[in-house]
Request: fold
Amino acid sequence: MKKLLYLLCIVVVFLGSLSPPAMALTPFGPPVATLDPGQFTAGFGYSYSEFDLEVSALGITAIVPDQQVSTYMANLGFGLLDDLELQVDLGGSGYDAEGSHCSGEFAFGLGLKSTFAEADHVKWGASVFAHWYQASSSGVYLGIPCSEENEWIEIQFAVGPSYTKNGFCIRWPVSSLHRR
Reply:
């Protein structure tokens, strides 16, 4: 049985290395429930992303390089049932772009984690998180002064295993979806 478990872990890690990377703004931990019913947890997270933004208007497409998003979130987790937990994230996000003045504003997130199978040191679970962000900016793009209000929603969904033994944990989320 142990040999089969080790083989499964090797296959999962190999398949994970073949999948394309996905930009994720907010980390959310392993895709399994880790809290007992009634148990609380609190923490703080920081994430930073860089990307180029493609803008299209009136048949003209332009690339706005070097977009940066920083997110600071306090998170509270609560064990609802044996294999189900709720997480609430509150904080702010900062949006920065070359040639613009940006201000970070309110950010909020809500998520659920569930464990649906467990054997030896491996748990299989799923999690879904939704985060809402706001930011405003003003500056000069392509020689034109402008200002904008940004609001976006990030939705992440993951299914996968989590191997834990002696305080060491290996996890593998399968997919992540984002909408802006």
